[in-house]
Automatic annotation (TrEMBL):
Organism name: Sesamum alatum
Keyword tags: ATP-binding, Leucine-rich repeat, Nucleotide-binding, Plant defense
Origin: domain of life: Eukaryota
The protein's name: Disease resistance protein RPM1
Family: Belongs to the disease resistance NB-LRR family.
Amino acid sequence: MSTCSIFHKIKLTTDVVVYQGSFLRQDIVVGFEDEAENIIQYLNEESKELDVISIVGMSSLGKTTLARKILRDPRIEYEFPTRLWVYVSQVYRVKDIFLSILRDLSWITEDMYDKTKREIAQTLRVRLEKEKFLIVLDDMWTTRAWDDLRDAFPMTNKMSKILITSRMINVAYHTNHRRQPHQLRFLRDEESWELLQLSIFGKLNNCLKDLEFPGKVIADMCDGLPLVIMLVGGVLAKTTSAREMKVIKSSWMKTKESMRRTLHMDRERRFEEIVMLSYNSLPSKLKPCFLYLEIFQKTLKSQLRD
């Protein structure tokens, strides 16, 4: 299996259900302020039943980052005492998701493991009926996924909301045909440059003058995709420890030329090439660690330590 496909597996196919809080890493967020405000406004609106709101966009556009930003917002924390994050992905097991939600809410009992998914869904639905909750269903790929999961959610609970992220517009309309999905845009050029600076230096206006031009060119070649910008930023950040400006600038120019060679490719192929650029910049001792991840099951939960 190629390195890119391993990266794709790690990123997209791990089922996780967690509380909002320390489990959600602090993403660098650029360009989503207006989008976040609009969705927070939707979430605070009154409705006649359980309301479903969707964020739609292509891979690497920042749907998950935006959803995390919203879930961490103090207004949302105040409004929704119960907040859950459910990572659905292409490969999911309905019963495991239901049990994970019950476990995270401390509602799990031993006999639950022997029940059918329909029985567990009914238990979950009855318990959630009494809660004011916001549940994020992240990375939903198919309409069937919604059909599989919706029985666990009390549609009569008008106090609560569900926020879905998906690449598929038909999934968004299937979950709620009465509400227009929020289609995420690409980052503008100035936003791309801002995010690249943050990912390299940790703050704005810290880029040396000699690096601004190649830096802006590199940012423009990232096609407004936040994940691509962050990957490239990680590559460039490793070069800033060099003492001589000549060495740093040479590394940036090499990165720029590597990206320029991908301009004729489609977005998916370009993304794979940039992942490889990031992989190749890893220290030799870390590359095997990355490749060893292929042996783990897709649904394995892992704890990370610095």
